[in-house]
Specification:
Layout: E1 11-15, H1 21-29, H2 41-49, H3 60-67, E2 76-80, H4 81-93
């Protein structure tokens, strides 16, 4: 899990591995925010997630960069989703 410096964090940002983020985001919005299967996963990744303008939610890279100044600062904790899952699994099983 993240280092103890985040114990008193005022700002917590959970990020996801950018290699799987487009897939997860696609499955989240497919059928909820956009009509089910209205866009193919590859088209979504290229046209929305990775495009220069991004989707109506903006670009993921810009969102990540907006939080990056908090990385390593006492008041901020930037943690990867996979770390949270591993931590939860270790607590649930123990």
């Amino acid at each position: 899990m993240a280092t103890p410096r985040g114990k008193g964090a005022r700002y917590i940002q959970v990020i996801r591995d950018l290699g799987i983020a487009p897939v997860v985001w696609y499955h989240y919005i497919n059928g909820i925010i956009v009509a089910r299967d209205a866009i193919a996963p590859d088209d979504f990744a290229r046209g929305v997630f990775l495009s220069a303008r991004g989707g109506s939610w903006g670009r993921s890279w810009d969102h990540l960069r907006s939080w990056w100044p908090l990385h390593g600062r006492e008041e901020g904790l930037v943690v990867c989703c996979n770390e949270l899952r591993a931590h939860l699994a270790s607590r649930a099983g123990g």
